[in-house]
Here is the input.
Amino acid sequence: MTGIILTPRGVFEARVDLSNVLPEDGVDLARRRIGYGGKSVELGELFAISGSGAGRLTLHGSDGRLDGVGAGLSEGEIVVEGDVGTRLGRGMTGGMISVKGSAGAFAASEMAGGKIVIGGDAGERLGAAGEGAKRGMSGGVVVVGGSAGPRAAERLRGGVIVVHGDAGEGAATDLIAGTVAIAGKLGKNAGRGMKRGTLFLRSTDGLGGGFADAGVHDLVMLRVLARRSQELAAFFGTSVTRARRLAGDLYAGGKGEALVVG
Here is the structure.
């Protein structure tokens, strides 16, 4: 089965809300009503729908005006062959979302399970709390092949976020728990207000001032993490056991840590 394929009928003139379009069985998606600008329209008015089979939904020719893709996903797979807009995978609890392009703000917001892979960049507040929410992502895995905007992992409370590029200002602000790995450069004030959790970094440049250097340590747990998470194994390797450890944010009474590896 190829799954369902959505192809835009033309250029979008307004933002499209796809937050209630999921890879479901026995559903007439063509008649599913979605938000388009300030009005409600049927999905079939904006997209040609082809293919068959539940469990997989593919978006051809997508762009940054498609918001809410995969929101609330609990199972199945969504493949995006371009860019997406805001709130990618918001509140998802399972399944898989693959985006070949970039994603807008609040990707993985309040995510609790599943996996999101973004081939390009992610906008501001990746994995952070959405409007009206107190806490951000609590579970699952997010991998960003490019860079992330400001406030990535803000108020994160669980799960794993790996960014292979840079991160903007305020990454891991008020982090509650969870793991964040950033391979590139940090914007200023990373980890400010961090309570617990772990940051994996390549350098301390950009780390907030409330972190105290505890020196270089042999940490067998790195090998354990590498065995449990292929995403972290890809970040620091399977044989690394030494890391420079910094504790913080001490200004906020936090008990988190930043580990500089590789």
In short: The first strand starts at residue 3 and ends at 8. The mean pLDDT is 93.
